[in-house]
Every structure is written in structure tokens, then in C-alpha cells.
Amino acid sequence: MDIVKLEKEAAKRGLSNFKTTPEALKARASKQALDLFSEMGIMNHVEVEARYEIELEEYTKKIQIEGRVLADISRNHVIPTAIRYQNTLIDNVKGLKEIFGSDFEKIAKEQIILIKEISGHIEGINSKVDAMTNERKKANNLTNAQEMAEAYCNKVKPYFEDIRNHCDKLELLVDDETWTLTKYRELLFTK
């Protein structure tokens, strides 16, 4: 089933359809939920609200850690590896220019395209990591746990996919021997 069908079915049944963890956690601490927990003798209002705060903080910390790890791996492993490979290509182009003179552009066309493509992905990673870090700093200045969780969810987390996309593209472009991390296709055969 696709998402649209699931959303329609939830609406038809009168079910809530929260798209993010902070939204779902907020619903668990609603007046209706608090009254239900209390009426059933499961938890009182204080217990529910305490769990709600803890779960918000836990969610925020997980996204915060994931963002920091993503930035660290991107900048300290992926980019340096891509630059090393790019330098190998640059040396190759210089050698072709030395040997073939003005005809080198035709001969080194593919290497030059690859060098430019790698540069674009490196720039993409750096700019997205900077933007993500700035959003993380803004989120960390918030004092309300719900607002902080929402900021991490809606402002920080969306950068993850863009950064990963650039890293994935570099993984495909960089030579296997140069790439320092395990490639996705290699994970399939790891025991």
C-alpha cells in the first residue's frame, strides 16, 4: 500500500495520522490522553508528562547525535577520500597534457568531467553540513522540549538526506581502492 492510500484509510476511520515523532509524542500528552491514562489507572498526569518530556529529550538527542556523526563522517572521511581521488585524476590530466599538449582536453575529457562532478559533491556536503550545524545551534538555544524536538525534526533532520545523497554519489565515483569506508554493495556480502 502506498502512503496516500494509508492516509485516506486513516482519515476514513477517523484515526490520527501524525507524520513526525514530535507530533505523535505531543498527542500522547494531550488532555484526552491524560484523562484516559488517569481514568484507566495506568498513569497520573505527572507521570504521563514526565514520560513525555523524557521521550522528547531522547528523540532530540538521537537526532542531534545522528547529525553530528553524519557531519563528522562526511567531513573527516568522505571529503578527504574524494579529494585524494580527485588529486589522482588531476595528476593524470596534467600527465596527459604534458604528453599530448593541446590535444589533452579531448583525451582527458572524462577525467575533467569527473573532477568537476567530485568538486560539486564536496561543495554540496560542506554547504549542507554548515547549514545543518547552524540549524542545530538554533535548536539548542530553545528551552521548550517540544519546540526543540520540532526544530530538530523539521529544520535539522531534512539536511540528512541531502548530505547522504552527496556522500552516496561520491561513493560511486571514487575508486574502490581509494574509498576508506565500506561501500553499500560490500555490506550485502559482509558476514
Give your account of this protein's structure.
- With 191 residues, this protein is mainly alpha-helical.
- 80% of the residues lie in helices and 0% in strands.
- The longest helix has 56 residues, at 45-100.
- It is elongated and about 85 Å long.
List the helices and strands and how they pair.
Layout: H1 3-13, H2 21-28, H3 31-39, H4 45-100, H5 104-107, H6 109-140, H7 145-156, H8 158-173, H9 184-187
Question: What percent of the residues sit in helical stretches (DSSP H or I)?
Answer: over 70%
Q: What is the global morphology?
A: elongated
Give the end-to-end Cα distance, rounded to a whole number of Å: 32 Å
Strand percentage lies at under 5%
Mean pLDDT: 90
Largest sheet: none
List the helices and strands in order. Answer: HHHHHHHHH
The radius of gyration over CA amounts to 24 Å
Count every helix, treating DSSP H or I runs of 4 or more residues as helices.
9
Structural class: mainly alpha
Give the low-pLDDT segments: none
Overview in brief:
The chain has 191 residues and is mainly α. It has helices at 3-13, 21-28, 31-39, 45-100, 104-107, 109-140, 145-156, 158-173, 184-187.
List keywords for this structure.
191 residues, mainly alpha, 0% strand, single chain, 9 helices
